[in-house]
Amino acid sequence: MVGSGVIRRLISLGYENIITRDRTELDLTNQVSVGKFFAREKPEVVIMAAAKVGGIHANDTYPASFLYDNLAIATNTVNSAFEAGTARFLFLGSSCIYPKFTSQPIKESSLLSSTLEPTNEAYAIAKIAGLKLCEYYRKQYGVLFHSLMPTNLYGQGDNYHPENSHLLPALIRRFHEAKLANQESVTIWGTGSPRRELMNVDDLAEAITHVLSLENPPNLINAGTGIDHSIMEIAEFVKRTVGFEGDIKTDPNKPDGTPRKLLDVSLLKKHGWSSKIPLEKGIETTYALFRQEMKDGLLRTV
User: Fold this and answer.
1) Residues near 119 by beta carbon (within 8 Å), at least 6 away in sequence
2) How many CA atoms lie within 13 A of 76 on its CB side?
3) Residue ranges per domain, the chain?
């Protein structure tokens, strides 16, 4: 999702010499393969959007896989880019790197100040290691390797797996199928009270190209909208967009996850960029894309 969004953005800006590899062409967890790729292609700029990702269920069920795969991706790409002479490397992390309980909105300085959310600790540790690699390569070798921490993302190309998808695609699929089946209700995990900040992937792609234009960017910078909603409110947005007429029920026996994850985006605003796509408008666009991708047989459910 993020990679394709970045490509759309780069093409719109007139860039042509864009080097990409999908997971069938290059296994980023394979150190030898990654090293050979960088040595051959010698990219000037790297945007590291690849990761093994998933929602609460996936993270809590496969912690070893999330930790190992994402650690391998980070170490292999950062070091290989350095050895190949890459001038600039932008590592994309996640808002889950921050402590479970910290002041809101979350500043970049909150990193490593307290304990992480247990259900996605493995993924968070791998992402923290990646951003620290960039920071220390920059410190030790003087290379312009830095990191951007996006909030929760959604949009074109998202993963709609029935069990392992993130919050918004999971809700879109669930309400859409409930509407088709004339169900009386849709049940969401937890109490519905936790708050989440959601950012459209096209917004993020624009933020990425903006940060890459900065001559001396911070080692770590948050990227988000600066606005959050309760999961129940987000579910209501999706319900209205889909046109589902039943009830929304909660399942308090399922985990809520982190109570709130609102990023402080003042640093990014200070450097000249702000989010432009409101959540309700973004959900409308994303649902239309979901229906079209389903119709065309292109819906991503890996």
Assistant:
1) 56, 59, 60, 255, 257
2) 21
3) 2-295
Provide the 3-class DSSP secondary structure of residue 152. Answer: strand
Identify the CA nearest to 5 among candidates 205, 168, 210: 205
pTM here? 0.91
Per-residue pLDDT of the chain in tens (302 residues, 90 and over written 9): 999 999 999 999 999 999 999 889 999 999 999 999 999 999 999 999 999 987 778 888 999 999 999 999 999 999 999 999 999 999 999 998 999 889 999 999 999 999 998 988 999 999 999 999 999 999 999 999 999 999 999 999 999 988 778 889 999 999 999 999 999 999 999 999 999 999 999 999 999 999 999 999 999 999 999 999 999 999 999 999 999 999 999 999 998 877 888 999 999 999 999 999 999 999 999 999 999 999 999 898 87
Task: Identify the CATH homologous superfamily for domain 2-295.
Answer: NAD(P)-binding Rossmann-like Domain (3.40.50.720)
Does residue 68 have an active-site annotation?
no
Instruction: Check 15, 62, 123, 154 and give the catalytic one.
Output: 123
H or E stretch covering 10: helix 2-12
Between helix 231-242 and helix 167-180 the angle, nearest 10°, is 40
How far apart (Å, rounded) are the C-alpha atoms in residues 284 and 289? 9
DSSP 101-157: S--SSBPGGGTTSSPPPGGGHHHHHHHHHHHHHHHHHHHHH--EEEEEEE-EEESTT
Size of the chain, expressed as the number of residues it contains: 302
Maximal C-alpha separation, the chain:
60
